[in-house]
Design brief:
Structural class: alpha+beta
Number of domains: 2
Strand content: 5-15%
Helix content: 25-40%
């Protein structure tokens, strides 16, 4: 009985002359009643034109139906020119399965049940084994797939490669969902993208693997984002702009800052929050961002915290480092020649939990500074001041920080220094830390 069912399924789903004729009008145009408004219409029609897949005798394609291991193997091989009659001995796709094994597209034991819906992970493996295309910087694409570490080790390469080639895209939340099944429409799309490089949707990555705007925007829509960023206070409006909704200090709806005195301020705020947000997500930290008007001036405060919380026992914890950016400049000190737009501060570069069993001496060793804090602080300065001046300020900050430790926090520094193109006023009081106010590059 099973043998009869398998043959019938094969006859219904796949290529034969009668079905092909039913799917086309007299002029050869593909005629399927349920794909006209479907997102994958173009891909489905291209694959039908190649003779790799067909619709049903009733004139439908059923694009949202799942596709089985056997069915996907058949259309994948057919797209590469391998055609077989449905087998009358055993499973209808027997010859396709044996051919796929012979071409090393699948391994013995890959399919426990040929008629079970195929998973996206298995599709990735078969596609990658079919094409000779590979990607450079594979690790950069792996970083974009947030659930890749939970996948079997032997499937991670195929998933990252198929994703990096733009053949199989991920989901809006940054996941790939390798165990999720796929539809006939999705399978058709994947195979056309495998065959035609112009149809691929290659994800954008920056040289250092930082989030693109789309990745950042998509992340802010996930549940995890709310334990990483203070999204109650802002939202992403577009690439380069955040809108501040409310803060500790009152309501100011839809605030996008004037840039007449502080050029590119909105872009700087956006880049700092995006990069720190990614670092916080990857390292289990927290970034608080909020609108903070003071003395009639519009300001934004951005603080980076060690953990995914900012309060303990009702007490607000101080950020490890942070910055305040002002729309309108201020003259904080009489000896400054220029007005100040930026206030940079550092509380610590080490994690509290690292010194629980290691004593105070631990924090006096610069080798124990947490790499996430150092990287985040450096990138923040680069985004604000540019790479050239940002690098100089970063190096100066670390030197000042070391001097604070050498004096066990007894040193006071209120000096005025020029760092590259930036005038900086130190205002370190007693206690370990680092704090400056600066102008901006003209």
């Amino acid at each position: 009985m099973k043998k009869i069912v398998y043959v019938l399924i094969g006859l219904l789903l796949f290529t034969n002359v009668a079905i092909a004729e039913n799917n086309r009008a007299e002029d050869g145009e593909i005629k399927l009643r349920d794909i006209n408004s479907h997102w994958a219409k173009e891909y489905i029609e291209k694959l039908i034109t190649l003779g790799s897949i067909e619709g049903y005798p009733d004139g439908s394609f059923k694009p949202e139906n799942t596709i089985t291991n056997a069915e996907f193997t058949k259309i994948l091989l057919a797209s590469k020119g391998h055609h077989f009659e449905n087998s009358k001995d055993g499973h209808w796709a027997k010859d396709y399965i044996e051919k796929a094994k012979g071409l090393s597209i699948i391994d013995e034991g890959d399919f426990k049940d040929l008629d079970k819906p195929i998973t996206r992970g298995q599709m990735a493996k078969m596609i990658v084994m079919t094409t000779n295309d590979r990607v450079s910087n594979l690790n950069m694409y792996e970083k974009q797939i947030k659930d890749i570490e939970g996948m079997p080790i032997d499937i991670q390469f195929y998933v990252a490669t198929a994703y990096g080639l733009g053949i199989i895209t991920g989901y809006e939340d940054g996941s790939f969902k390798n165990e999720k099944t796929a539809t006939r429409a999705e399978a058709s799309t994947m195979i056309i993208r495998m065959l035609d490089e112009k149809e691929r949707k290659i994800p954008k990555i920056t040289e250092d693997g930082r989030w693109t705007h789309k990745q950042f925007l998509d992340f802010t829509k996930t549940n995890k984002a709310h334990s990483t960023l203070s999204l109650a206070y802002f939202e992403v409006v577009e690439d380069g702009k955040l809108s501040f909704k409310r803060s500790h200090y009152g309501v100011k709806e839809d605030t996008i800052f004037d840039e007449s005195k502080f050029p590119n301020l909105n872009r700087i705020i956006y880049d700092v929050v995006k990069d720190l947000g990614q670092l916080a997500y990857e390292g289990g930290h927290y970034v608080e961002v909020f609108y903070h008007p003071a003395q009639g001036l519009d300001r934004v405060v951005i603080d980076f915290y060690e953990e995914e919380r900012i309060a303990k026992g009702g007490k607000v914890l101080k950020g490890e480092f942070g910055v305040t950016l002002q729309v309108e400049p201020q003259k904080y000190y009489e000896d400054t020649k220029d007005l100040s737009y930026v206030s940079v501060n550092v509380s610590k570069f080490w994690r509290m939990k690292d010194i629980v069993n290691k004593g105070v001496q631990f924090i006096e060793d610069s080798n124990n500074r947490h790499p996430d804090f150092l990287r985040g602080f450096r990138d923040m300065l680069y985004n604000i001041y540019g790479e050239e001046d940002g690098k100089l300020i970063y190096e100066y900050a670390l030197q000042e920080y070391d001097k604070e430790y050498e004096t066990k926090g007894q040193r006071r520094n209120r000096s005025l220094v020029n760092i590259g193109n930036i005038e900086a006023k130190n205002h370190n009081l007693e206690g370990i830390g680092f704090s400056i106010t600066t102008n901006i590059k003209k």
